[in-house]
Give the backbone structure.
Amino acid sequence: MPVQDAQARKNNFHEVALGYTPEMAGEEAARCLNCKNPQCVKGCPVEVDIPGFIQALKEGDLKRSARVLKEKNNLPAVCGRVCPQESQCEARCILGIKGEPVAIGRLERFVADWERASGAPQPERPVPKNKKVAVIGSGPAGLTAAGDLAKMGYQVTVFEALHTPGGVLMYGIPEFRLPKEVVRQEIDYIRKLGVDIQVNQVVGKTFTVDELLQKEGYDAVFIGTGAGLPNFMNIPGENLTGIYSANEFLTRTNLMKAYLFPKYSTPIKVGRRVAVIGAGNVAMDAARTALRLGAEESSIIYRRSAEEMPARHEEIEHAKEEGVRFMLLTSPVAYTGDENGHVKGMTCQRFSLGEPDESGRRRPVPIPGSEFELEIDTVVVAIGQTPNPLVPRTTEGLVIGKHGNIVADEESGATSRPNIFAGGDIVTGAATVILAMGAGKRAARSIDEYLKRKLRREVKG
């Protein structure tokens, strides 16, 4: 797929990948074997009829192709950009055994973008059901559950704590990887399905889950509040100014447009030398964002080797092309500050790799006496996030896991309370957009079954 030149793009926030041309999409679609037993579908958490949408694309019927996509996926343009297809649908493609799998994600993006540019038709509304469902959180899990429930005829209201819906799609993923306008248009589609989205509603503060059920008349609640509580290493000096969580750094930049200060009122300060701790997709986003904000050096600091880095291969390659430096088998053990309390350096230690740990990756082992100093102006800590505790703590009767997650059935999203369901990062901890969407889809089905049973009981009296 064509991309912006690396030297040009590291100075702007425009999208890096430029998308297929119609000719490219046609050639790629033609490679699909249209398998009788398509394994790719089994690798898709939201169950898209992949051969179906590609076949329609092959035949030049882009309207039908988009319709097939949206039968299962409410956010196809998002998924076509950020879904890790290489470990999902494309990992199951039969052509991948001896060569390159069909680029399913890129075709999904092409079809979704074509529909947005052409003017998506007004979706059909089903016969309304006299049941209300509240969805807490408007990230990928919440939007998927809301869209699917609306397609079933339920009255759905989404409650979002921030001033704009989208959750991690808006605050966590940079414009150069997922343009905000793409997210906005896909959220508009969900609104057209009949979903009411209310922003600036902090459930647990504005009102509780029980108040939604008992006072506001909702028949069921889906909790998809994600994992927005950043982890830190708890090492000396970590409270110095100039040390950000990735969550704050990316939210200020992406959602609050800090890079346009003072035109937008949120400032952000990025020094000449930036260190990003971690090597997942969030870390790559932060390191590449730092370059775009003017850093002369942006480094990934990671205590394992390249083989263990959890980020997508494509994101790692894009970061390297833009000049991000990788310091592997290295981790900070302390930060030092100047007389004003601003970080000016960090002490790092080198690591070797031991036996695999519970994650299956080789355990990093510190090398005694290997400490060294680095001058640094800004640090971004991107070592994962845990669930925000507000909703779990204010909802009585929910069983909570040891990491603050809500304990819910993986397949149904059912929690310890019969009318409350949960899915996505609030259950699993931080994972991918598509896995959260899959959880939202399964929970929507379970909520439908629960409400049908409830309705039958009401009819019987």
The chain has a mean pLDDT of 94. The first strand starts at residue 132 and ends at 136.
